[in-house]
Amino acid sequence: MKIENPFESGHIKNYILAYVGVVVIMVLFFIASTLWNEPKEHPKKEFAVEKKADVPREREEKEPPKEEHKQSKIKLMEVHY
Fold first, then answer.
1. Could you give the CA distance from residue 11 to residue 22 in angstroms, rounded to a whole number?
2. 13 with 20: CB under 8 angstroms?
3. pLDDT band at 72 (very low <50, low <70, confident <90, very high)
4. Bigger pLDDT: 54 or 26?
5. Where are the domains of the chain?
6. Cα(71)–Cα(64) distance, integer angstroms
7. At 49, is the pLDDT very low, low, confident or very high (cuts 50, 70, 90)?
8. To 10 degrees, the CA torsion angle through 22, 24, 30, 36?
């Protein structure tokens, strides 16, 4: 079996037609995906930048931490590293 040069035997036309066919199919799929699948528009989110004056005082005051560690079986260290 002898390998022939595709340029001399005329087979290059088939390769070019196959390549062009693949490119045309890719372009058609791209056009179809952009035409029928329009991007959905989302409403623009607006964030409140002003602080509310009616903040309850109860929320602002924090309770002192409860000393539950004295009741547990594990003794916690006094000094933290």
1. 17
2. no
3. low
4. 26
5. 1-36
6. 17
7. confident
8. -120
Residue with tokens 């933290």: 80
> Structure tokens of 62?
């924090």
CA angle 42, 43, 44 (to 5 degrees): 115
CA 64 to chain CA centroid, Å, is 42
Q: What is the mean pLDDT of residues 59-75?
A: 63
Q: How many Cβ atoms are within 10 Å of 6's Cβ, its own excluded? A: 13
SS3 at position 17: helix
**Hunting for tokens 């070019």 — which residue is that?**
16
Encode pLDDT of 8-39 as tens digits. Answer: 778 888 899 999 999 999 999 999 888 877 66
Chain position carrying tokens 């058609």: 28
